[in-house]
Design brief:
By secondary structure, the chain is an alpha+beta fold. The longest helix is centred in the middle third of the chain and has 28 residues. It binds protoporphyrin IX containing FE.
């Protein structure tokens, strides 16, 4: 996907939007700092959103769900083209957000049921499988001649995908299919596609949604020991959730449940290996890994921006916001705001308040899968620290991030090692 290039300066040399380019993710941090300092609540007419960059303002918006609704969180940033729309209609695509774009009281009702299915028992059952999967993938990479690997493709891509497919009860041999569908979902919702470019993605979304419907129907028939099985049993026991809502949860989880965690594992290794003294510290003492994971989430979150809509005339940080306004909350910026985090631009696994980051949002929509994401990142770091303590980044300068409004994911993390 190629975003429309936006010049950084006007003809007279003034910075445009303080260098902020909504879809460009290689290094958004200097622009975030400029926005926080000079224009913390800025209207960006290129996307039609009010862009909010300071920690306190963002947290306050997340907290006030009565004024700022999440109903636009899954809306396509670029309007759906006529052909893509037709393909989706003909294909029976009626998916709606599982939770993140639903609002109370519907959100409260579905979240209550869904939260019961995210049990510690399921996490406990998953941890040995996650570890075995990490070990197998790492051993395969390390055995490859030439001592070169890509931590995204060789490790981070598969681990959370297998986990979420197992949790849901979907076919774990179809990793590439689910990844393809997820890429289409990210591109169709948060990307900058032309009408023409949307067409193949529309076909993918039709397939993706019909698989979610099939999973629910299958769970009714076979009563599997999986999260969908649990939801179907809860429904039979009187919990208020429909088949369409369960399928919508699958549609959400089969995306949210791996895409962001692939990025977290990639970022954790990328950032730690580019701070070798901190990498050595966790190799020497793996009990420091959970704190390091929180610092990675602060310093380099998988989701750098999330959306809300103003339900009435209001204000953010003293700036008047009209009813109906779309708002983009830059968590990637909030997480480096010096008013909350000392030396916010520095990566420091000893930071005492790293856990105050907003990488998982805040308030009633706070990420339901945060513990599962952190568990997988912890296990991945533990095993890499144990099996490949001498891992090094092969070429940091080459690390690029895909274009997207919200998701900031490294395309590859090339590494090398000594035997
Ligand atoms: C590093 C990994 C992850 C990150 C950075 C992340 C981030 C987020 C963010 C920013 C939100 C929106 C919060 C808000 O609107 O206030 C969210 C919501 C959600 N996430 Fe995650 N997430 C991650 C992993 C996961 C995983 C592994 C799962 C499931 C297995 C998951 C399931 C969900 C669900 C269901 C919601 C909607 C919650 C609601 O609206 O009530 N996420 N996540």
């Amino acid at each position: 996907m190629t975003p429309t290039p936006t010049p950084d300066r006007t003809a007279t040399g003034c910075p445009v939007h303080h260098g902020y380019r909504p879809f460009a993710q290689d290094d958004p941090f200097p622009a975030y700092a400029a926005l926080r300092a000079e224009d913390p609540v800025m209207y960006d007419e290129r996307i039609g959103y009010w862009v909010v960059s300071r920690y306190d303002d963002i947290k306050a918006v997340f907290e006030d769900w009565k004024t700022f609704s999440s109903e636009n969180a899954q809306a396509p940033v670029r309007e759906r083209g006529p052909q893509a729309g037709q393909i989706m209609e003909d294909g029976g695509f009626t998916a709606y957000s599982g939770l993140s774009a639903r609002i109370p009281p519907e959100h409260t009702r579905i979240r209550k049921v869904a939260a019961k299915a995210f049990t510690p028992r399921r996490y406990k059952m998953l941890e040995p499988q996650i570890r075995a999967n990490v070990v197998q993938l790492l051993d395969t990479m390390l055995a490859r001649p030439g001592r070169r690997g890509d931590l995204v493709r060789d490790l981070a891509y598969d681990v959370p995908t297998v986990t979420i497919l197992t949790l849901i009860g979907a076919d774990v041999t179809k990793i590439d299919t689910f990844k393809r569908w997820s890429d289409s979902r990210a591109a169709m919702t948060w990307g900058d596609l032309t009408d023409e470019e949307q067409i193949p993605h529309a076909h993918n979304l039709v397939e993706y949604w019909s698989e979610c419907r099939r999973l629910v129907a299958h769970a009714h028939e076979t009563q599997p020991d999986s999260l969908v099985g649990d939801l179907v049993r809860m429904q039979a026991g009187g919990d208020p959730i429909s088949d369409h809502e369960i399928a919508s949860l699958c549609y959400s989880l089969l995306f949210a449940g791996h895409e962001t965690t692939t990025t977290l594992i990639s970022n954790a290794l990328r950032v730690l290996l580019s701070h070798p003294e901190q990498w050595r510290a966790i190799v020497a003492d793996p009990s420091r890994i959970p704190a390091a994971v929180d610092e990675v989430l602060r310093y380099s979150p998988s989701i750098v921006a999330w959306r809300r809509r103003a339900l009435r005339d209001t204000e953010i940080g003293g700036v008047a916001i009209p009813e109906g306004a779309d708002i983009l909350l830059l968590m990637g910026s909030a997480n480096r705001d010096e008013s909350r985090f000392d030396q916010g631009e520095q990566f420091d696994i000893d930071r005492p308040n790293a856990r105050e980051h907003l990488a998982f949002g805040y308030g009633i929509h706070y990420c339901l899968g945060n513990m599962l994401a952190k568990l997988q990142a912890r296990v991945a770091l533990e095993e890499v620290a144990r099996r490949a303590p001498n891992l090094r980044l092969a070429d940091t300068a080459d690390i690029r991030f895909g274009d997207n409004l919200s998701f900031r994911a490294p395309v590859a993390v090339p590494v090398t090692w000594e035997d």
